[in-house]
Amino acid sequence: MHSLIHIKDFSLSFPNKTCFENFSMQISFRDRIAIIGRNGAGKSSLLSSIAHTISEKHLEISYGHVPQIITHFDTSSGGERFNKSLSQVLAQHPSMLLLDEPTNHLDSQNRKNLLRILEAYAGTLIIVTHDKEILRTCVDTLWHINEGKISIFHGNYNTYMDEMRKRQASITHQIDIWNNRKKSMHQILMKEQERTAKSKKMGRKKSQTKNG
């Protein structure tokens, strides 16, 4: 087990980009969190920062961190390097496991093995991944980095997608309302302009009649 981890007002920015600001969260033992977002959103940096925070604050938490395996060789080399790193980490029986894009270089069999390991893992899991099967079966919370903030979704990937569809539907509905109001205001304006034009025309006719 490990104690409650507090993340408070955490921000990540670079000279030309702000990834997110003022993120606060608590991590409890056996939480299973996926960090998702576009490439370059700051997912790996957030994961590394969590590991750094644990180490810097000397928290009594045994954790294993397997960063993203970057390889310029073939897939098998990347898969072998990841499997070796993961095996070394798991041998320490950590209460928290931090993984960064673990399926990037895995073949189908090694990917299946990883899924079994993650499903059976009894500690806290924080994982950066795009793998939808992992998101559906191995996590119960998603941290979505998007447009300078982190939104928290409780549930798996299916729950997240349902919520995103609802949000999109709500946004679309609001846009439709705004467009209808805009159209209505335009029609009102056009009618007002027509009335003004008719009034001016009638005024000119009266003036001509009077002068004639």
Q: Which value, in Å, is the CA radius of gyration?
A: 28 Å
What's the tally of helices? 5
Helix content: 40-55%
Described by the principal axes of the CA atoms, the overall outline is: elongated
Summarize the helix and strand pattern as letters.
EEEHEHEHEHEEH
Strand content: 25-35%
Poorly predicted runs:
none
Question: How would a crystallographer describe the biggest sheet?
Answer: 6 strands, mixed
Task: Give average pLDDT, whole number.
Answer: 87
The separation of the N and C termini measures: 101 Å
Number of strands: 8
Which structural class fits the helix and strand makeup? alpha/beta
Query: How would you name the oligomeric state of the polypeptide chains in this document?
Result: single chain
Structure notes:
The protein has 212 residues and is an alpha/beta fold. It contains five helices and eight strands. The chain has helices spanning 43-56, 75-90, 108-120, 132-137, 157-211, and strands at residues 5-14, 17-27, 32-37, 63-66, 96-100, 124-128, 141-146, 149-154. A hairpin with a 2-residue loop joins strand 1 and strand 2 (17-27). The protein is elongated and about 105 Å long.
Task: Provide keyphrases for this structure.
alpha/beta; elongated; six-stranded mixed beta sheet; 212 residues
Strand-helix topology:
Elements lengths: L4 E10 L2 E11 L4 E6 L5 H14 L6 E4 L8 H16 L5 E5 L7 H13 L3 E5 L3 H6 L3 E6 L2 E6 L2 H55 L1
Parallel strand pairs: 3-6, 3-7, 4-5, 5-6
Antiparallel strand pairs: 1-2, 7-8
